[in-house]
What does this fold into?
Amino acid sequence: MVKKIAVITLGCSKNLVDSERLMSMLSNVGYDVVAADSPEFQEAEPDMKSVVINTCGFIGDAKEESINEILSWCEEKANGGVAAVYVMGCLSQRYAAELPGEIPEVDRWYGKTDWPKLVTDLARKSPGSVSYDRLITTPRHHAYLKIAEGCNRFCSFCAIPLITGRYKSRPMEEIVDEVKMLVGRGVKEFNVIAQDLTNYGKDLYGKVEIARLVDEIASVEGVEWIRLHYGYPKDFPLELLDVMAKHPNVCKYLDIALQHVADNVLENMRRHITGAQTRELLAEIRRRVPGIHIRTTLMVGFPGEGETEFEELMQFVAEQKFERMGAFAYCEEDDTFGAKNFADDIPQEIKDERLGKLMELQEKISDELQQQKVGTIQRVVVDREEADFYVGRTQYDSPEVDPEVLISKTEPLVTGQFYNVKITSAMPFELMAEPVIDNGN
It folds into this structure.
C-alpha cells in the first residue's frame, strides 16, 4: 500500500508555494499526496497516513493558529488517527530551539526552506525533482509565482527578516522557465509574490530588475494576466510602471504596503520615507498607469501614533481613495527593533477603535468606487460555478483578498475561461454582472 500524506498550509501565499513544491517532491518519491479532508485520507488506515503542517509565525494570531493546528493533529495521532506529525515553516524556523521541548509529540521539526531534507528523511532518498516543480493547489487557471525569499528592509515592527533572512532573488531564467511550465499545465493568471517585489534582482544582477522580469513574463505566450504583490514604497523602481502600461496582460493593479503617513510614525517604523514622498509616489503611479487599482495595507496603534497622527492617517485614506485596502492593529513581535526600543503603550481598545473607524471609512470609499463600475464592460475570469451564479474576478481583483463578480447564469460559462460581462449593480466588496454574448478571449 502507498502511504498517504496531507500537507496543511497556514499563512500566506508564499507558504502555499513552498507547500506545493514539497508536495511535488513527496509525490516523486512515491507518496500519495492528498488533502487532509479528502475521503482518500479520512478512510486510509491510520498507520499509512501522516500530515505535514506548514506553519505561519508572522503575527500573534497566526502563531496561535499554527500552535492550535499542531496540537489538534498531535491529539489525532495520540488517538490513533495518523501515524506521524511533521512541522515546517515560519513558526518552526523562528522558534526552532523552543518548540521541540514544548510539543514533543511532533515527530520531526523543519525550518522554512529545508523541505528537501524532510522528503529525504521520510523516503530515505533524494526527491530528485526540478527545483520549481509544483503540485498546484489553486484552481487550475491561476497560480502564485514566488520570485524571491527574504527581506532587507528591517522595518521595526516586522519579524519577517528574522525568519527568512536576507533577500535572495531567484534567477530570472528559472522563473521564466517555471512560467512556461505552468502555462503548459493550463495556468493563465500569475500572481507574482515576494516579501518585497521591488528589490528583485539586486543581489544577483547588481541592480533592481523587477521591470525586466515582468517584461519577460508578459512576453510568454499563454500568459493572460500578471498581478503584482507586495511592493515597497522606498526607492520604488518607476520603470516598472512603464512595463505595466506597455503590456495589456500586466494587470493595472499594484499591491504596495504603505503602513502609515505621519512622518514620526514612519520614522519609528523605520520605513525610510516621508508622508510627502509617499503622496508623490502615489501620484506618479496613477499618472503613469491610468486606471490602476492600488491595494495597500495600513497599521494603527504603532508607538508614536497619537490622535493627531491617526487623524492624519484618516485624512490620507479619504484623499487617496484606495481601491483596495486592508488594515491591522499593531502587535508587538519578539526580538524586533520596535519591541526592543518602543513601549507598546497604546491600549488595545484604542487600537481596535481606530481600526474600526479606518475600515468603516474604507468601506464607504469602496462602495463609491464600486458604484462607478455599474454599466461598464469588464473582462473577468470565471473561478467557479455556484448554484445561482458564476463567480469571477476582474484584473483588479486578486484571489481570496479582493472583491468578486457574481455573474448571472443567462449564458453558459466555463471555469477558467475569460469573458466580457456588464456590471449591473455593486456593493462595497462585490459586483453583480451579466455575460456579454461575445467572450473576452
In short: The chain has a mean pLDDT of 93.
